[in-house]
Amino acid sequence: MNLRKLLLTNNACYKAGKTITPKGIMIHSTGANNPWLKRYVGPDDGLLGKNQYNNHWNQDKPGGRQVCVHAFIGKLADGSIATYQTLPWNHRGWHAGGAANNSHIGFEICEDGLTDASYFSAVYKEAVELCVYLCKLYGFSERDIICHSEGYKRGIASNHADVMHWFPKHGKSMDTFRADVKKLLSAENKPADTVNKKYYRVQIGAYSVKANAEAQLAKAKKAGFTDAFIKYD
User: Could you list the residue ranges forming a coiled coil in this record (predicted)?
Assistant: First the structure.
């Protein structure tokens, strides 16, 4: 994950200063064919690129709307994918249009034309990694992740289709997304001693007298090298 921070301090949501105890994550997508982060995040930090229309969300009410999310995923000026945190994670966002504003961290994935498999794969992977990061930060599991459309079905968000108008076009759903988060969480939580390791064995000597070899073997085992052995040539 390429996580960066540019808080939208001029947004009325940020200035409201309300906090929450996060209980889950809500995934949104922007609903516009514009994958560039500079459309929503600004001003230019040298990586985003300049928004020539100055219509990013770092203003009081962007486009006259009360909107703000905790992060955006999309393209930097060089075409690479990044995540920008735009609110403190425990700040009450304006993303759900319902009660989920009081309980969920919300982030937007910048949409393109919805047909570019390469772009989708990159932002999907970034979103999985962001959710894993937040799950570890707040003790969530994959079951605590929903999209906006699922929030609507639960009665905690407004009637939006995202992200189920996009994910299925590339063979994905929120169920596969949660499964991918669970898989990565499990891999990162695996104890170190269960991870496959490569060992390099060192021979420390050769002896023509058997008693000397056995004495060296005894020393090695006493020092903790329990898998030491004598090889006869």
Answer: none
